[in-house]
Amino acid sequence: MTFKICTIGELIVDFLAKGQNQRFDQTGEFIGPFPSGAPAVFADQVAKLGFSVIFFSCVGKDQFGKMCVNRLKKDGVIIDGITFHRKANTGSAFVSYKSNTESDFIFNIPNSACGLLSFNHIDENLLKDCNHLHVMGSSLYSFRAIDAMRKAIDIIKNKGGTISFDPNLRKEMFEIQEMEQSFDYIMEYTDIFLLSTNEVSYFAHNTGESEQQTMQALLKKGIKHIVVKKGVNGANYYGRDEQNKFTMMNIDGLRIHSVDPTGAGDCFDATFVSLMLAGYPVRIALKYANASGALAVSKKGAMEGTSTLIELEKVLSRSTNNI
Prior knowledge:
Blueprint: E1 4-8, E2 12-20, E3 30-36, H1 38-48, E4 52-60, H2 63-75, E5 78-85, E6 91-97, E7 103-108, E8 132-136, H3 143-158, E9 162-166, H4 179-189, E10 192-196, H5 200-203, H6 211-220, E11 225-229, E12 235-240, E13 246-251, H7 264-277, H8 282-296, H9 309-317
Parallel strand pairs: 1-4, 1-8, 2-6, 4-5, 8-9, 9-10, 10-11
Antiparallel strand pairs: 2-3, 6-7, 11-12, 12-13
Helix pairs in contact: 1-7, 3-4, 7-8, 8-9
């Protein structure tokens, strides 16, 4: 099946703490810059798999922006939707590691070039061949970005396309008044929903419902496929079979030495969505997505662990859940 994916949002550089538990309020060493941003990592992973993807974002007319755009272009991402701003710098994030699986961030996004992303940056002509939009919750960082996302959703849905959504919840997002309303809007149009296990309670509205109860309720609202990502513990899938009966499956995770957890969920999303659109069975798409997330944590830098289909096949061929 031929398809083209679109995603929208932040394209930034990361600076990574050299030591674990490095505090932000004390002098310490950081390495970087590394190209980053959740939707940017998603787009890069889609392209590395050999599928068509266009990315909409804004960067500064500076060396950071140039580096990020060149990296995406090299890996095969269509960059026609990226705007260079003269009056704003490329966004950035400083990352400190609490452990091999947890990180803390200081973001400079709202006042950066990608913070200026708006409705006007979404060129309908560039979306004419797209039939799928991936939405990252982390990209809903301003009312302008939310309007841009709504425009893209409307364009894709009006032409019969599909939507995938990863809420990618971060504490900074809850300071944005429009965010919860935008979540409700996006969920109405979502076909594939990908969330992390620690986000389940948010969508259960803290009612104490089990994961399965919460996912069944979301399926009743029209979502077709739901994946709960569990890191090294794999993933749970919820959907409906050909007889429209509720179905659930679990895929075991792959254990790998974690160097940097940033970007693992984005790589998982990109692989699962791409392979589902390509017609792979759910179980196979999940296995490849797990492998993609595992390889992502093996290198420092959110985009440094993106992988090709051949690399994923090699991992799976030698895996007994340990790589």
